[in-house]
Write a structure and sequence with these properties.
The protein is of the alpha/beta class and 194 residues long. The chain has a single domain, classed as Alpha/beta knot, CATH 3.40.1280. It is 34% helix and 23% strand. The protein contains 5 helices and 9 strands; from the N terminus they run βααββββαβαβββα. Strands 6-5-4-1-8-7-9 form a 7-stranded mixed β-sheet, sandwiched between helices. Helix 2 packs across helix 3 and helix 2 runs parallel beside helix 5. It is globular.
């Protein structure tokens, strides 16, 4: 099964708050984060253990957090549960006395610094683009990395050295993640049948 690492680059300018979660009024960047995490991790009643998600909050720190479904606890499919883990991780980053949630790794690196450290040279990189070219690359790579900027303005130039494949830029990032993950699920099913 190919390993997929999703990088979410968030435009959030403030941390999510407990009050927001309690009354159900959450800002748009955090709603999009929750939808992307749900699309990447949850399937039926289990978590996909071959997906990793790294959230980058460059406007807040920098702060990056990587979620590992093999060790994460209390991750449900609803926005409140997902964002509660993000809230606890942000509090742990601000105040070291707070405990980092299980399955979350924090870093003070910017998204581009973390990206260059984590992405292996043999990985297939997927970024948003006008043409969708990624499907043929699925069976050729065991390491897939997907960059999902959650804001409208971003530059492809930093990624061209990786010779990326492209997923459709005109669909929401959570749907793009779901499309790739479901294709990998289907590929794994075909490989198991053979």
């Amino acid at each position: 099964m190919p390993h997929l690492h999703v990088f979410l680059d968030s435009p959030a300018v403030h941390e999510v708050t407990k009050t927001e979660l309690d009354i159900g009024i959450v800002t748009e960047p955090y709603v999009r984060i929750a939808h992307c995490i749900r699309a990447g991790f949850t399937v039926s009643h289990a978590l996909r253990d071959w997906v990793r998600i790294t959230l980058s909050f460059d406007l807040l720190g920098p702060l990056a957090m990587t979620l590992d479904p093999r060790t994460i606890r209390y991750l449900g499919t609803d926005e409140r549960t997902i964002l509660h883990i993000i809230l606890r991780a942000q509090k742990a980053h601000q105040e070291p006395k707070n405990k980092v949630p299980h399955g979350v790794t924090l870093s003070n690196s910017s998204m581009h610094e973390l990206f260059s450290k984590i992405v292996p040279d043999n990985a297939t990189l997927l970024i948003p683009g006008k043409n969708s070219t990624w499907r043929d690359a699925l069976s050729k790579s065991s390491q897939m990395v997907m960059y999902c900027p959650l804001f409208t303005e971003w530059s492809t130039e930093a990624f061209l050295k990786h010779r990326p494949e492209f997923y459709r830029e005109n669909i929401h990032r959570d749907l793009a993640i779901l499309e790739v993950v479901q294709a990998l699920d289907a590929l794994d099913f075909v490989m198991q049948k053979d």
